[in-house]
Write a structure and sequence with these properties.
It is built from 5 helices and 5 strands. It has helices at about 20-25, 55-65, 80-95, 100-110, 110-115; strands at about 5, 10, 40-45, 50-55, 70-75. α1 (about 20-25) crosses α2 (about 55-65). The radius of gyration is 14 Å and the shape is globular.
Length: about 120
């Protein structure tokens, strides 16, 4: 079942992005939601983020860059314990890398001189 959710409700699932993949989707915007599977997410209960991205992080990031705020996703049917496990492992990895959100991910793929200009 494919749903539509707000981009800012999704915690990124990767601590770095493939620059080639991001550039491909920026140049081929019509392919953003034609890839299979759609952006896969886990549902996280009781957290500021409602979802955790499993697949499609480059596409998710491109949506962010293009200003697309509502996207089609396919939630994974998992119980809360497994969802909590995925979330906790991601949170530990993110915070140990100093990644708090999209702005931090953005700085990972920008050239150094552009990265230094970020607020």
């Amino acid at each position: 079942m494919i749903n539509r959710v707000y981009l800012y409700d999704i915690q990124p699932g990767e601590d770095s992005l493939c620059k080639d993949s991001v550039e491909y989707f920026l140049e081929n915007r019509d392919r953003l939601f034609k890839e299979k599977p759609p952006i896969n997410i886990f549902i996280i209960k009781g957290h500021v983020f409602k979802y955790y991205a499993i697949e499609g992080n480059s596409r998710l990031f491109v949506c962010h860059k293009l200003g697309i705020t509502e996207i089609p996703v396919e939630p994974e049917e998992e119980n809360e314990i497994e969802s909590s496990f995925w979330y906790e492992s991601a949170r530990i990895r993110y915070y140990s890398e100093g990644i708090m959100g999209w702005r931090d991910l953005e700085s990972r793929i920008l050239p150094t001189e552009e990265r230094e200009r970020l607020p």
